[in-house]
Design a protein that fits this description.
Strand order of the largest sheet: 2-4-3-5-12-6-13
Number of strands: 14
Distance between the termini: 16 Å
Number of helices: 14
Helix content: 25-40%
Strand content: 15-25%
Radius of gyration: 19 Å
Structural class: alpha/beta
Shape: globular
């Protein structure tokens, strides 16, 4: 893993704040739902140090650890008599706001909003305490207009949001081709069109875009509409792994209720183990949870390829967060604050050691 390096935060905070809360790392739309739903607790089970833990996540496949963990009762089992209160979000900024306000204690979220949340609070609010998912991001194009990677030049390619994880990845890839794009406007040798993933398939069908660099399941939705996968972002990374979803916690909650945090992490580790051992059952469970959360399950033609492209793991892949931030600096979207301390992996490593699994590394960005 790489040593600690100065990382980055979004320069255009005012611009991002003015934008509708579109997709950040891996969500849809702008609404959040604090439905107050609590999981059922078995009679006679003892509570931990808190009566409840408030968790947040997106109704999205890259957050399947949370979806499945709640759906199958795997998280609740580790918490005993401490109830889970669920809030779902469709954008990273709204989840970070909820974390800052204490409306949630622990959340599944992408790397860009985690970086923003950490730096905007001067390192005083959240910590990344685990990984959750890797991959699940693709460049999907209209095969009639784009037949090879060099054909992307001069075309209109959508990303979910200015400065989000996929936006930065596309801008970096464009620069590596030797092409020029103004990061703020998206104008240049490639037209980068920031488009809410909810409407990206419609924009594709209308011909308003020629392709999109997007997470799952939007990528597979575009393929179902006739698009072609031109590039899987995983192919650009060592070992084909890069962080797409982390688990974060309020620092105050971690300090006050370390036993609850440890229990959630233990549930997450066991959920990922169950997902990887039972991929078909886990896929069906995630889809059932999506239907419950959003009112609509994904069709097989979308969920099957999307599920295969996501890896569920406990390692936060800290060095790839470092690299993603450097890409954002190089694109002109980010400045360079010091993110040392963003990770606290001690609780996770305690859980992993107890489960007989390998401990994970913070790439020099930990609390010690």
């Amino acid at each position: 893993m790489s040593a600690a390096r100065p990382l980055a935060t979004l320069r255009p905070f005012a611009v991002l704040a003015a934008l509708p809360l579109l997709l950040t790392a891996c969500g849809y739309g702008a609404e959040s739902t604090d439905d107050g739903r609590q999981t059922e607790v078995a009679a006679g089970t003892e509570k931990l140090s808190s009566d409840e833990v408030k968790i947040g996540y997106f109704p999205n496949l890259t957050h399947a650890t949370a979806l499945v963990g709640v759906q199958e009762g795997l998280l609740q089992k580790e918490l005993g008599g401490t109830k889970i209160k669920v809030s779902t979000f469709n954008a990273g900024p709204s989840e970070i706001e909820a974390l800052n306000a204490g409306s949630i204690d622990i959340g599944w979220i992408g790397p860009s909003p985690a970086i923003n949340g950490y730096t905007k609070s001067n390192g005083k609010n959240l910590r990344i305490i685990s990984g959750s998912a890797s991959g699940g991001v693709k460049l999907v194009v209209n095969p009639e207009k784009i037949k090879s990677l060099k054909d992307v030049k001069g075309k209109k390619i959508a990303t979910p949001q200015l400065g989000n994880t996929q936006d930065v990845a596309l801008l970096n890839w464009i620069a590596e081709q030797g092409w020029k794009v103004d990061a703020q406007s998206g104008r240049g040798d490639v037209s980068v069109v920031r488009t809410d993933n909810k409407i990206t398939p419609d924009a594709y069908n209308a011909g308003s875009i020629d392709g999109a660099w997007v997470p799952e399941p939007t990528a597979s939705k575009l393929v179902a509409e006739g698009g072609k996968v031109l590039l899987d972002e995983a192919d650009l990374w060592p070992d084909k792994k890069f962080v797409i979803t982390n688990i974060v916690v309020r620092q105050a909650f971690l300090k006050e209720h370390p036993d609850v945090v440890e229990a959630v992490l233990r549930g997450s580790v066991k959920t990922n183990e169950w997902i990887n051992a039972n991929p078909d059952k886990a896929k069906a469970s995630a889809n059932a949870a999506l239907k419950e959360e959003s009112g609509k399950a994904l069709p097989a033609e979308v969920i099957d390829p999307a599920w295969k492209s996501i890896t569920f793991l406990d390692d936060p892949l800290a060095s790839t967060l470092d690299t993603e931030a450097e890409h954002a600096v190089q694109s002109g979207l980010l400045e360079k604050p010091d993110l040392k301390g963003i990770y606290d992996l001690a609780p996770l490593n305690k859980v992993l050691k107890a489960e007989g699994k390998d401990e994970v590394d913070d790439a020099g960005l930990g609390t010690e």
